[in-house]
Fold Molybdate/tungstate import ATP-binding protein WtpC.
Amino acid sequence: MSARNDYIDRRETTETTRPADERGQQSTAEAVLELDGVTKSFGSECAVEELSLPVREGELLTLLGPSGCGKTTTLRLIAGLERPDGGSIRVGGERVAAGDERSFVAPERRDVGVVFQDFALFPHMSAAENVAFGLDDWDDEAREARVEELLELVGLADHAASTPDELSGGQKQRVALARSLAPEPEILLLDEPFSNLDVDLRVEMREEVRRILKEAGVTGVSVTHDQEEAMSISDRVAVMNDGQLMQVGRPEEVFQHPESRFVAGFLGHASFLSASVVDDIVETPLGRVGRDRIHGLAPEYDRAEIDVLVRPDDVLIRPAEEGRVDGRVTYRRYLGPTVLYRVELENGDVVEAMHNHAERVELEAPVGVELAATHDLAWFPTEDH
């Protein structure tokens, strides 16, 4: 890393933060990180298989998937903590790995920062000293100014002299974030950044970390298995499974229009209605739906059998009216403000419905079921089931 002696002058003449674009609107930005056909195996196990993914300048992308899907290995490959067996990785246009010894660039020379899961703060150093740790080649004045700026950015200007044991979990995370941002990395990697925090603090810090990264203008790649976390902080989400990239897109796109049953189920409760396509109508156990309500339903599926994806907020249940029973409640889970019900329909399909905690329906109760979705619905060919 070259010396940053001109930092103060640059700070006065150059804007240090990029405008925070609306989520998902960075499609015209250049890729600052490019993975092209990246593969990594451990013995006979393929952890990452032919992974290709660009990450745009200034965006926050989250690698999301279950344990063992390859997301953490991918992060370690980007950081230089693992070497790929094949494919290439570029950071800022420079090739940093390509499956051979000659192409490999050491982690400390990649212009990539990492926020570790356990924060990895030095317990004997103050917050300011932790932030300054990676700035040894900066002159004293520039280093002091950079530390002051970052502590202000993360809201810890009044805790500069505090040691880690004097800070809360959220404060420690912000110190770790500031330390990783200090050398002005091209990319910041976040490894399960909220897993060590309690639930309330986790939600608060999601918003805070996104704000900090956007104000700093840095490109971020995060790793998590938490769907809600990924949806709430990301410009784009890349869903992985068994070492493969299953789908990448804006959170809303991936959730509403999953490209596989795995993605549909991993991103939240997913139920499927057996349906028949007849001209402009799709017949379901819960009534007719206009063909134009089924997202991307191709012409070749006319008079075909399909499965329509519905989620708990798409379904309403009510006490059965005389002469009409659509199904029976087979499962109920109390979640505090809401209750999740599982209903077996008369045709054998099973759907789930989310209701207010005050609207109690007993187990085994006969119910009427209404498809209440106001958005277009995803679908899959029945033969893929």
Notes: The two ends are 52 Å apart (CA to CA). Confidence is low (pLDDT under 50) at residues 1-27.
